[in-house]
Amino acid sequence: xxxxxxxxxxxxxxxxxxxxxxxxxxxxxxxxxxxxxxxxxxxxxxxxxxxxxxxxxxxxxxxxxxxxxxxxxxxxxxxxxxxxxxxxxxxxxxxxxxxxxxxxxxxxxxxxxxxxxxxxxxxxxxxxxxxxxxxxxxxxxxxxxxxxxxxxxxxxxxxxxxxxxxxxxxxxxxxxxxxxxxxxxxxxxxxxxxxxxxxxxxxxxxxxxxxxxxxxxxxxxxxxxxxxxxxxxxxxxxxxxxxxxxxxxxxxxxxxxxxxxxxxxxxxxxxxxxxxxxxxxxxxxxxxxxxxxxxxxxxxxxxxxxxxxxxxxxxxxxxxxxxxxxxxxxxxxxxxxxxxxxxxxxxxxxxxxxxxxxxxxxxxxxxxxxxxxxxxxxxxxxxxxxx
Length: 387
Description:
mainly beta, Thrombin, subunit H, four-stranded antiparallel β-sheet, 2 helices
């Protein structure tokens, strides 16, 4: 009997120290927001957490959702990290060219065109890309190993607009140019009067650019029909001061902020000012407008967010914080800024819910309206909406 009792106690100890022990999937150290607070916003389901531990003088420069991956860039180490959007698993971490002084936002294409990865072929949509002023780096989305590089014929001033296998850059010398990501060859070029600072915006089959003199242009990006000629100017115009932020667009028009204190809207087909526009402010506009569906928002550096009617250029409301619109659903607008998240009535701009969170580097929308919360030191949480 004693022998059986001893054996049972030994087995119990083993189970308690191994198989019966389950690690908690989330730790307080990795959290950015409390579940109870997120529940008030309709996001009470914490799917996963991860801590990238961005410390020791490192800065989390970019956070991008690229398909099934969240890709971050840390500087000055030029460390790229890929995290699974599904389960928060760390997929890979790789340093990209330590000698590159400046890298821009990582990107990905949906193209299924084949390229060579050593002796085998892979599709372009299985590649993560990032560029410096002079080079595009291609990395495997699976394990992060470098597949190759593409030298740029002209110094780029930002990340490109991505049109399948074409990358369209704005140059520091004012040249807008496209390269073929498969071959690296330049496909076309168009010269603007001054440096193109803001990232070009793809509005199929064209690309919109603005420069440091306030000149803007819509250029054919790729041949969508037999009549399209890539690199050909469709229309152009000029504001009265530099254009620093990327354009926004919806089915009503193209929206461009200028340092001449005006938000413009252009007809997509003709480039002419739409009736009732521009929308005038009292300060230079350097940040990009944001279009969500049929709503338009303008962040002001003085510390507010303005909702503008995209049809009439009429001011609808002003939110008293420099908040960023994240998603709009059923006239409920989610805003993020500083240490807070707000749920706002999109018709009035009045906050219906406000919750406090840790300082935020980014709040991004994932599939099915899930949210990704990211802190400046690399803590991430995915919250799913409650059903």
